[in-house]
Design goal:
Length: about 280
Amino acid sequence: MNFKRGFDFEDRICTKLETIGCRLQRDQRLDHKYKLDFKVISFPDNPGTYSLGVQVTTKRDDYEKQNEFESLHRTSNVAQKALYVELFDTLDLEDGGALAVLTVISGFQFDRRFRDAKVQGAIIYPDYSYEYFDVTERCRALRERAKAELADQPRPAPATPVQIDHLRARLQNADTGSRVEMRSAAEVNAVMTAYKRSEGYGFATSAAGENYFVHVNAVTDDRLRDELNQVPYSEIPYPVEIPLAFVDAGYTKPGAKYKAAKSVRMRAGLRAAGAD
């Protein structure tokens, strides 16, 4: 019988480990704040007391998840050690899978190779074999791979004049009253067409069809920040449709493909495409 994803999956792993003889700690604080499914307090037939935090997942090579885990536990003291474990979703807990999980966890705690390691990763295969990996190095490799894939992808298509006119009409209808929002002569009206939440940047197209690079550090509008924080994570910029107003900062770096936007704000409360 294969385990299910989600809470049932975590519960079954913890139940199996406790049945084997592990003593665990689980609570919402560990889960929500520190991204730990449980902490191992003691091992079977071992009188020692330990503090080894564990996150288990069936998602392979999830950069966002690994990077958050590594960043949290590089400096956190909530556990002496932290282990990020990837499992194949075909691993059978009833037929050796639980023993493999215990072996990986106890190996990280007791193997002298990891004596000075605070954060580590491991993967368990369907045949119950396993290997450890450096989470920091894996994150770096995944980030570089995503950048390479992004470089091979065509840039998000600029908004068409028809799309821009449509958004203008929606903005006017959204205004309180029939008056159109005025802007200064130095301010550019544009539509953000794509945003990569993990890197904090996106692209916008002006009414004249010119493309701009938009970074979250240039945003001055809390409303817009909230909107960007709802854009789903993705390895390449995620398609959105957010009307912006900003100042044209020109080409701020040598060799830049696009002009940069500064003092960026949202012109109306339209939701990002695909956001919840």
